[in-house]
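Catalogue entry: protein
Contents: sequence, fold tokens
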Amino acid sequence: MKREFFGTDGVRGKVGEFPMTADFAMKLGWAAGKVLAATGTKEVLIGKDTRASGYMLESALEAGLSAAGVNIALVGPLPTPAVAYLTSTFRADAGVVISASHNPFYDNGIKFFSNKGTKLTDEQEAEIEALLEHALTIGIDYVSSEKLGKARRIDDAAGRYIEFCKGTLANHLSLTGLKLVVDCANGAAYKVAPAVYRELGAEVVAIHCAPDGININEKCGATHLDSLATAVVAHNAHLGIALDGDADRLMLVDNNGVVVDGDEILYMLASTAKQAGVLQGGVVGTQMANLGLELALQQLDIPFSRAKVGDRYVLEQLKALNWQIGGENSGHILLLDKVSTGDAIVASLQVLAAMLQSGKPLAEFKLGMQKLPQVLINVRVTGDAATILTSPAVQQAVASAEQQLGKTGRVLLRKSGTEPLIRVMVEATDANLCRQMAEQIAAAVV
């Protein structure tokens, strides 16, 4: 049976286990290089986050691409959106990010994209999978010595990306007078993010900016906000900004230490654009988006559409509708008038710009949207997630919950695309009932 290696977010796995070994990475590099070279690709740009395994996988990918006759440009640790931007800036033909995003350090992944910041075509992915299967079972065919790809390191990549981010803030605005706490998750943005805000005038308190290869996302960043909330209050800051390991996810904390999530960020950005008369179409959220977002946008006569969970599906729907603003409550924010992919730094600058123009602090600015109580329980599973979701026990638990909720709430179950988890989400006007129903369904999933 043919194995499929490309998921919704590239190839991921625990380092040292199939598929994420150095041998696998080299053969993947060779397979991708062969397919890309056939379309005229001469150079691939490679970036990574701060995981210790990134050095090994980077070298292995470099070897595989070289063996296929493709040149390599190395930019070192930089955010995923920075690699997307720099791939175009340096006229590379394709880009690669070595990162497992918000996952623990022992995971890593490899994601390919075009020089336009989009994923490879389905046809290209299928060709790469076929060649990779060949390489894993039979071996690889090297090009002749004179045709081997060459590698170069780009030294000013970080500076270029910093200037790009700064350029997305309107010229008449400045962050002077703002005190920000910035949590870089010990990840790829540990240098560039604080620099962007400081160079725009803000006073920056940087936390979790000392990566050691294994502390990426460890009780910090966009998935663990307690330390950021504490720091914001302790430093009497205006707000806190949290990025994840590869800086494509954004969460905020207001001056009171209260979390502001992706749904609230979407509301603030869309309502500001609507007021300024520059909103193109509406907003794309996901099945996980809080019903409060939909209702708040409805009050402003802003269309709202739900996509499947995953930023790639949000992007697909935005393009299909020709809209510009979309994202997930987890903090993946897409602003297609600014960038081609999710960029936490750029998104944060747009929120700061909107806040400054409103003349309100973040805690007040977000109040136009009222979230309904929502409970999300991640249930770790050992069997096949799809089979568990369709089991009679789970189906009965869901049906019972939906009957009790009626029109006052909703239930959503889905399997994680990156971990052995089933996510149980219940939303209701009654917080106690919401929690009770979520726990009831989660118990059936175990």
